[in-house]
Amino acid sequence: MVYETILVKIEEGIATVTLNRPEVLNALSNQVFNELADVALTLGADDSVRVVIITGGNKVFAAGADIGQMASATAVAVSSGNHPSHRAFNLLENMPKPVIAAISGYALGGGCELALAADVRIAADNAQLGLPEIKLGILPGGGGTQRLPRLIGSGRAKELIFSGDFINAEEAWRIGLVNKVVPADRLFEEADKMAKRFAARGAVALNMAKSAVNEGLRMDLEAGLQYEHKCFSLLFATEDQKEGMKAFLEKRPAKFQGK
Ligand code: CO8
To answer: How many domains is the chain built from?
Structure first.
């Protein structure tokens, strides 16, 4: 697929996907959602890619779904089938490798929901996050009513959803919406540093650990613990487990092959 609304760069096992519609503050059109879905599948299947960073560049992450495109939508059209945003966010959330959102400037509505589909969020100190959909007479329909309460608890999520207020990076960090706040001019350096830390680990263990957390959140505790145990047991069939433990005993860094 030729991408027109996103840029993709792969360097040393780290793929950076940059939203590229600066004229509308990276508003997410159906074309963006379709390209994000395609890139999630492509990078997910590419063994040379260990970690994915998703960003909007150094000015804005994304100011939401494209309101121009949504304004004339009908209930029938919106409700029919799987909305492109759901497909894109689900594919990103379930990619078999870590996804880091590097957020600069506004991450609003669908933009904030895109960041919620990532595993980890790093915010520049100029970031503004929020779910302003309520001010448009709608609700956060890109997973915001589901992923946000799971991340920060229902009380805080409801305050953000009901008010539509924006919060700054420091407040987003305080309530657990982002993992880390960094000076704006160091955002990409910090995201890259985190990506490299993850990339140094065994790819199969990363995949299983991500799956155990994601799937576990959809289950009750007992089922989640059983699922975790299955993932844990499976890792004993990998070369990386042998290498990781051998390296520890030999007091040297492990060299994981992702096998
Ligand atoms: N959609 C389309 N265009 C947008 C969007 C958007 N979400 N946000 C900004 N733009 C455009 C503006 O229209 C403007 O275009 P133009 O220059 O042609 O007038 C350009 O980007 C620059 O924007 P502003 O002039 O408004 O810039 P400001 O710095 O004054 O303001 C704000 C920045 C505060 C971010 C402001 O642009 C704003 O409030 N934007 C809308 C924020 C918003 O409401 N987002 C939520 C959208 S709804 C949503 O995301 C639903 C998700 C559910 C998806 C799932 C569907 C099933």
So the answer is: 2
Same domain, 151 and 215: no
pLDDT digits (tens, 9 = 90+) for 64-93: 999 999 999 999 888 877 789 999 999 999
Which tokens sit at 137?
């007479």
Same domain, 170 and 120: yes
Euclidean distance between CA atoms 201 and 196, whole angstroms:
9
CA distance 214 to 217: 5
Where in the sequence is the domain holding 218, given as residue range(s)? 203-249
What is the enclosing helix (H) or strand (E) of 100?
A: strand 99-103
Ligand 1, pocket-test mutation among 34, 59, 67, most atoms within 8 A of CB: 67
Instruction: Provide, rounded to the nearest whole percent, the portion of the chain with pLDDT above 70.
Output: 100
Q: Which two tokens stand for residue 128?
A: 């503004």
- What mean pLDDT, rounded, does the chain reach? 97
State in Å: Cα 65 to ligand 1 middle.
8
Q: pLDDT digits over 121-174, tens only?
A: 999 999 999 999 999 999 999 999 999 999 999 999 999 999 999 999 999 999
Cβ(141) – ligand 1 distance below 6 Å? yes
Residue 255 within any structural domain of the chain: no
Q: What is the pLDDT of residues 180-239, one digit of tens each?
A: 999 999 999 999 999 999 999 999 999 999 999 999 999 999 999 999 999 999 999 999
CA distances from 49 to 22, 42, 93 (A): 26, 10, 16
Cα gap 170→181, rounded to integer Å: 7
| CA distances in angstroms from 161 to 94, 104, 171, 197, 215, listed in the order given | 24, 21, 15, 34, 25
